[in-house]
């Protein structure tokens, strides 16, 4: 009993103490609300709170403060807010567009937002001060109980008593102040999107309020009102807005406008997140934009006629492309759409090049360069372009066009696509694709190099030469049938070397060393071998002439000999003599005149001293001879060149020399028939036709007369005689080698090259298969195919059928046998 | 060069320092704070090779402690018992959210940069010691408080001499009186006085919400009770702290001492009755427990002696 008395007495005293302290605090809180804080001391107020807590009555204080604030809201804060909530505002919230103008709507909205902001700022400031003063309250008892802190509790009153207050406007469903607030903010933002100016700072303050308030007094970070209530609605309304906008753009505008517009919207929304709403929304709103403005109609915009990707590429609209790239990157990490569009355009343009080229080929022979297609391809010497020169021009044109195309896309790639790796792969792949579908790419590339090394680089600086070489290498990288290229290059290089047409040896060497760097040793070994042959031959020639002088037989009629010994492996077969080439004819030696025969024997003797056991074959089509030729004075001519004896030095092919020597012994006025010449010289017919044509048809070098005289090439029925009346202004005359200028193959030759490549490929595939099987012993069919393709990638792209047939063949020859299926797949085993 | 610089800055601080009693003991105690073992080891290693130790020696005045009660850079004045103590916002606000709130409050404290503290001067000085050095010492706090009682001139001379003895300080200070009374009175009085001083630290730490200070005060009381338990001291703590601090840890600390000394405490019902703030029930429980334990103890002794016999027999 005594104890209870003691306690109740104490309690009574406490209540008095409490009332005393609370009175003080309450008047201070009122002063704080009224901004009348001049006479307040923190220390005193804090002490009041402290005392109440030590009296063990913190709950009472807590509840008193809340009650005070609630009545303060009712009396002081809510009335002015209700005053500004008009019917219009409610309608905006409910989504119906009111009849009022935008200006009116904005004014009404601003008024409302300002009142809310004012109320909030007042409340927040007061609550901060009150919470500071009552700081001991939180410490004193919140340890024992799970009530939210005094600040959280009082600041949250704003949410409960202001924002969540319902409004019953007549005829409308109920809505809350919060609902009106959200709708008004979003309405204002939409106004800004339409181009009106709005009070951003005002919106920012209201948003700030939503960020400071939480759904519950627990104040969880992810339960801010901004996140739980405002943002979802904002995103949804924005989505509607942009969906409509994108549909409108697709209907009314072109891709370029769309790009610029989208870019602008992205920037705007990003800026809006910093200035008006919260930065935490920036990712979400960007996603809305990406989905609605970019993703939803991306392909449609990209394929728009006249402004889509195609037009952008064709018209070099680099800014558009750059923007497009950035937009695509936002929505698609694989850049699928853009990649496809680029690839298609490249292949289209590649095929275009081919088409233009074909037109040039058809139109050029008849009417040298008429029609737009032939403009760039032909050099301005339309008359004399024969078929082969035309081909060279076509090759040059093709290479140029392809490289230009490549340059353009490379530029786009680095200027617009930020050197994107995915797109680079796509571009490279597309180029490789159309280059390799064009069946003459290897040949044309080789011709391009050939032409440049022969004359193209004549007056060029080192830097320019470097550009040419680099171009060649660039293209070479794309070509998948490298073995074919090797064949062509071998042929062209052989001609350049033997006919000494190469402009500069060092550039030749540089070209080869670059190929080596790019494609490896095996690729260039033959080329290097050819160079080596040429160099050794030079020494050989010198040694021989020394040797001959050493013999002492210095007779005046001695024939100077310059020799090129070509190792059979490195040089293309057709160069080694037509005899082995077309028609499978037996190799026949031409009947060399006696003097020449002696010379040949002399050299062979010399050569065998240092190289034993070697056979030397003389290639008549490739050699040349310088002949001194005397044309007699023509009777009855007293003036002009014909009145004198004329001496000329003729440079003819070896065969040409043999033919001309026949006419040495021919009496004046007699003719030699084609058959007779063939019989006497034993020169294969095609070579003979070539040689005779060059000697008898072309006017400037017509040292033989043909019967019947015509400009057509020699036919096997023609007859020939020595042209006594031949006149030339030059003393040294080079007989043009007809058909030798034929660097481009004719159809037959090309077919032959292809056949040859295919034949070689068989062996290479065989070797690869055996190599792989030898190391793997047993292998599934599909894996074997993949491995073969991989191994040969640097040389050519083998057809799957070829590999299959080679496997069959190898099984037939008992290198492989069929093994038991591995995992149900057919397999092979290597037979040792 | 460097030494000169140091010397000049140091003297500048000394010139402007306010009346603090800086006696020999105080100066010597510096290294205690600064050269903790973990600091001194690398210190020696660096010094070892050459005799340019000055280059590496740490300025003993580099700690924040040199700003204690100094007007240098002072931006805050504490008013206590009518005296003005210079202080620094950065230090006080970082320790006490209450001071920080006061200075942010827009109220009088913030406008004038002054805070009135309603604790006694020695306690306030101790709290400042704690905030500036991480430690407090009741005696030092009292001495500093005395310094504020002295006329300014005296304090200055005392300072420059650096060896002012406490006995030279003029009398009339209530703090000093209490010290003297402690020395002359009942043998338990000094302990009680000391423990009550720590209780004050508990209260001020609680008021200004400096939990570490509260913890330290509890630790100090704990160690005093451990070394010299006294029922009187216990009762004075209870009477002093009960319902005048928001801290509860001291109760746990005290309870464990009660358990240790329950027999002595329970038998002394007269003294126990002095603990006004303990409810009668609590007091009865303590007494009852003490009785029960005595009975248990007695029977245990008896049985241990009987088992002792038994074992001997066995």
TrEMBL record, chain A:
Pfam families (UniProt xref): Cullin (PF00888), Cullin_AB (PF26557), Cullin_Nedd8 (PF10557)
Annotated region described as Disordered, given as residue ranges: 364-386
Gene Ontology molecular function terms on file: ubiquitin protein ligase binding
Transmembrane segments: none
Top-level division of the source organism's lineage: Eukaryota
GO BP annotations listed: ubiquitin-dependent protein catabolic process
UniProt keyword Ubl conjugation present: yes
Domain Cullin family profile: 440-696
SUPFAM superfamilies the record matches: Cullin homology domain, Cullin repeat-like, Winged helix' DNA-binding domain
InterPro entries in UniProt: Cullin (IPR045093), Cullin-like_AB (IPR059120), Cullin_homology (IPR016158), Cullin_homology_sf (IPR036317), Cullin_N (IPR001373), Cullin_neddylation_domain (IPR019559), Cullin_repeat-like_dom_sf (IPR016159), WH-like_DNA-bd_sf (IPR036388)
Sorted UniProt keywords: Isopeptide bond, Ubl conjugation
PANTHER family: CULLIN
Family, as annotated: Belongs to the cullin family.
Name the UniProt record assigns to this protein: Cullin family profile domain-containing protein
Organism: Neoarthrinium moseri
Automatic annotation (TrEMBL), chain B:
InterPro entries found in the cross-reference section: BTB/POZ_dom (IPR000210), SKP1/BTB/POZ_sf (IPR011333)
Location of the BTB domain: 74-140
PANTHER family membership: BTB DOMAIN-CONTAINING PROTEIN-RELATED, BTB_POZ DOMAIN PROTEIN
Protein name as catalogued: BTB domain-containing protein
């Amino acid at each position: 009993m005594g104890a209870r008395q003691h306690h109740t007495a104490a309690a009574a005293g406490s209540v008095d103490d409490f009332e005393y302290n609370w009175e003080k605090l309450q008047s201070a809180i009122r002063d704080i609300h009224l901004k009348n804080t001049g006479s307040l001391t923190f220390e005193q107020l804090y002490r009041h709170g402290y005392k109440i807590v030590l009296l063990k009555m913190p709950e009472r204080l807590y509840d008193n403060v809340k009650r005070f604030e609630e009545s303060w809201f009712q009396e002081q804060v809510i009335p002015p807010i209700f005053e500004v909530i008009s019917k219009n505002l409610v309608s905006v919230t409910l989504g119906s567009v009111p009849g009022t103008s935008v200006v009116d709507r904005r004014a009404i909205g601003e008024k409302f937002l300002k009142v809310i902001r004012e109320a909030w700022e007042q409340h927040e400031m007061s609550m901060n001060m009150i919470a500071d003063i009552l700081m001991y309250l939180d410490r004193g008892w919140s340890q024992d109980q799970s009530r939210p802190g005094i600040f959280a509790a009082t600041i949250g009153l704003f949410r409960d008593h202001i924002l969540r207050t319902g409004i019953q406007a007549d005829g409308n469903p109920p809505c809350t102040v919060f609902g009106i607030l959200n709708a008004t903010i979003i309405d204002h933002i939409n106004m800004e999107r339409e181009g009106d100016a709005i009070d951003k700072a005002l919106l920012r303050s209201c948003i700030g309020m939503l960020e400071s308030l939480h759904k519950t007094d627990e104040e969880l970070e992810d339960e801010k009102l901004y996140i739980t209530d405002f943002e979802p609605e904002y995103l949804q309304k924005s989505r509607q807005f942009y969906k409509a906008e994108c549909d409108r753009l697709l209907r009314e505008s072109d891709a370029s406008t769309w790009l610029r517009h989208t870019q602008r919207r992205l920037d705007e929304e990003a800026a809006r997140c910093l200035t008006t709403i919260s930065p935490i929304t920036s990712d979400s709103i960007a996603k809305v934009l990406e989905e609605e403005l970019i993703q939803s109609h991306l392909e449609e915009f990209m394929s728009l006629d006249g402004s889509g990707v195609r037009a952008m590429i064709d018209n070099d609209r680099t800014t558009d492309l750059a923007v497009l790239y950035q937009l695509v990157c936002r929505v698609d990490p694989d850049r699928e759409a853009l990649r496809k569009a680029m690839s298609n355009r490249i292949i289209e343009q590649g095929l275009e090049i081919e088409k233009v080229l074909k037109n040039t080929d058809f139109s050029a022979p008849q009417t040298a360069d008429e029609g737009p297609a032939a403009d760039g391809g032909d050099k301005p010497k339309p008359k004399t372009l024969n078929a082969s020169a035309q081909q060279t021009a076509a090759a040059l044109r093709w290479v140029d066009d392809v490289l230009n195309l490549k340059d353009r896309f490379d530029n786009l790639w680095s200027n617009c696509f930020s050197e994107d790796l995915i797109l680079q792969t796509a571009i490279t792949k597309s180029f490789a694709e159309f280059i390799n579908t064009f069946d003459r790419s290897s040949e044309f590339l080789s011709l391009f190099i050939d032409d440049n090394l022969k004359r193209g680089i004549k007056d060029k600086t080192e830097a320019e030469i470097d550009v040419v070489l680099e171009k060649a290498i660039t293209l070479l990288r794309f070509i998948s049938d490298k073995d074919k290229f090797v064949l062509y290059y071998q042929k062209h290089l052989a001609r350049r070397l033997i006919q000494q047409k190469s402009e500069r040896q060092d550039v030749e060497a540089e070209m080869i060393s670059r190929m080596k760097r790019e494609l490896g040793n095996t690729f260039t070994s033959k080329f290097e071998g050819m160079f080596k042959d040429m160099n050794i031959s030079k020494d050989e020639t010198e040694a021989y002439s020394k040797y001959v002088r050493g013999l002492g037989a210095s007779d005046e009629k001695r024939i100077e000999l310059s020799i090129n010994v070509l190792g059979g492996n490195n040089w293309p077969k057709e160069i080694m003599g037509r005899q082995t080439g077309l028609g499978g004819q037996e190799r026949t030696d031409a009947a060399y005149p006696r003097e020449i025969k002696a010379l040949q024997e002399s050299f062979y003797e010399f050569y065998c001293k240092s190289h034993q056991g070697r056979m030397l074959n003389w290639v008549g089509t490739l050699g040349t001879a310088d002949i001194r030729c005397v044309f007699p004075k023509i009777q009855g001519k007293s003036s002009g060149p014909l009145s004198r004896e004329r001496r000329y030095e003729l440079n003819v092919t070896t065969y040409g020399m043999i033919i001309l020597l026949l006419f040495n012994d021919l009496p004046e006025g007699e003719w030699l028939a084609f058959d007779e010449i063939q019989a006497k010289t034993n020169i294969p017919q095609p070579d003979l036709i070539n040689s005779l044509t060059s000697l008898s048809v072309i006017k400037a070098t017509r040292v033989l007369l043909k019967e019947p005289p015509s400009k057509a090439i020699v036919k096997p029925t023609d007859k020939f005689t020595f042209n006594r009346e031949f006149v030339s202004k030059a003393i040294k005359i080079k007989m043009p080698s007809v058909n030798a200028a034929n660097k481009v193959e004719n159809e037959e030759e090309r077919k032959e090259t292809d056949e040859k490549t295919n034949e070689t490929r068989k062996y290479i595939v065989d070797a690869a298969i055996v190599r792989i099987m030898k190391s793997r012993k047993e292998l599934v069919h599909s894996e074997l195919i993949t491995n073969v393709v991989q191994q040969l990638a640097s040389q050519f792209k083998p057809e799957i059928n070829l590999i299959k047939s080679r496997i069959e063949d190898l099984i037939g020859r008992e290198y492989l046998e069929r093994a038991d299926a591995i995992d149900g797949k057919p397999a092979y085993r290597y037979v040792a | 060069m460097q030494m000169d610089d140091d010397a000049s800055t140091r003297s500048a601080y000394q010139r402007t320092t306010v009346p603090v009693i800086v006696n020999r003991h105080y100066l010597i105690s510096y290294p205690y704070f600064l050269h903790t073992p973990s600091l001194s080891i690398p210190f020696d290693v660096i010094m070892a090779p050459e005799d340019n130790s000055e280059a590496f020696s740490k300025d003993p005045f580099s700690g924040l402690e040199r700003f204690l009660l100094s007007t240098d850079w002072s931006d805050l004045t504490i008013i206590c018992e009518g005296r003005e103590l210079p202080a620094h916002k950065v230090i006080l606000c970082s320790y006490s959210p209450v001071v920080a709130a006061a200075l942010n409050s827009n109220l009088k404290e913030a406008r004038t940069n002054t805070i009135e503290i309603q604790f006694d001067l020695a306690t306030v000085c101790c709290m400042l010691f704690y905030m500036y050095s991480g430690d407090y010492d009741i005696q030092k706090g009292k001495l500093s408080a005395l310094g504020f009682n002295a006329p300014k001139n005296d304090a200055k001379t005392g300072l420059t001499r650096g060896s002012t003895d406490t006995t030279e300080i003029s009398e009339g200070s209530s703090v000093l009186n209490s010290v003297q009374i402690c020395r002359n009175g009942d043998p338990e009085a000094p302990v009680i006085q000391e423990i009550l001083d720590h209780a004050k630290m508990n209260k001020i730490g609680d008021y200004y919400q400096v939990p570490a200070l509260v913890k330290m005060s509890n630790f100090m009381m704990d160690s005093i009770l451990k070394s010299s338990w006294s029922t009187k001291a216990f009762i004075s703590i209870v009477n002093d702290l009960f319902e005048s601090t928001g801290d509860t840890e001291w109760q746990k600390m005290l309870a464990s001492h009660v358990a240790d000394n329950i027999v002595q405490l329970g038998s002394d019902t007269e003294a126990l009755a002095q603990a006004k703030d303990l409810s009668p029930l609590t007091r009865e429980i303590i007494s009852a427990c003490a009785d029960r334990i005595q009975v248990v103890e007695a029977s245990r002794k008896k049985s241990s002696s009987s088992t002792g016999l038994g074992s001997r027999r066995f």
